[in-house]
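FAQ: What does the model actually see?

It sees only this:
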Amino acid sequence: MKETRSSSIREIAAGLGVSAATVSNALRGKGRVSPAMVRQIRARAHELGYVPDHAARALRTGKSNTIGLLVPNIGQPLFPAFAQAVERAARQRGLAVLIGDSRGDARQQDFEITNMIARGVDALVVIPTRGTTIAPQSVPVPVAVIDSAATAGNVAASDHREGGRMIARHLIDLGHERVLLLAGPENSLVARERVGGMCELFRSAGIEPVLKHSDATFEAGTAFGRALDLHRFTACAAAYDALAVGFAVAARERGCAIPEDMSLTGFDDLMWAQIVSPSLTTIRQDLQAVADHALSFVAGETDASRIFPIDLVVRESTASPPAFPRKGGRHAE
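And it is asked to produce this:
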């Protein structure tokens, strides 16, 4: 049944003894409807096979009720998870989501923004591809930029710098002094925030980590794990889980046991972090809170920017440094 057939809403309302307006508000996530009644109404709508007619609503209101979400690379594991969070936040407001992929290219990012606007989206949520900025004032619809606290015009972000501090503090408390830092891309503001937080704490403790920059990928982590002299370090802190997991695989191939020989940390708490063996100590972002705030911003419910707290998740990949040097030959860097 479609929203344009008023009998569908009236049928739900009559069956539950509420008004048609209450049913409409509950289905769109608007108005003051109790959570219990919202659940009842949505359950009844599901039973009846109710499907909103967004095209008809767009004709009536002049709005498409569609949000455009633009991500830097949908192939990277973090962004599908973030897309799910945005879709949940949008669904609560009766909105659909159109997803675009910049594929790490600034020109493709510009094209996707133009394309989404041409398709009539009411607003945009954009995670900029690294090395680029978004000028909301140049876009004819509301825009929420999600990047880092250091990004001009940022609307919602996790506290990446504090996450870096948490990782460093954890490794320092365990007693690590010889630290490798897989720092991710040099032109990523998010990576800079994470690495900046780590370096701040390490250096305050008299520790100078060895920094290695690369793409934030599993393959880059594997390459480092195969090429570097692992005996130089008792801990490796990666700015992304994908880097950490790739490094772990290569280190294990070379006979380096984690955490017995080397502790390892990541950042983002992807599913990979939970299923890799040993499970990965990492930083967890509250993606849903970030997505909810971004949707609130473009919906006009708030005009404030926010930085969201993160959590250190300690798992099996970190321990105190080994008491004695590891046996075996050294691999030249």
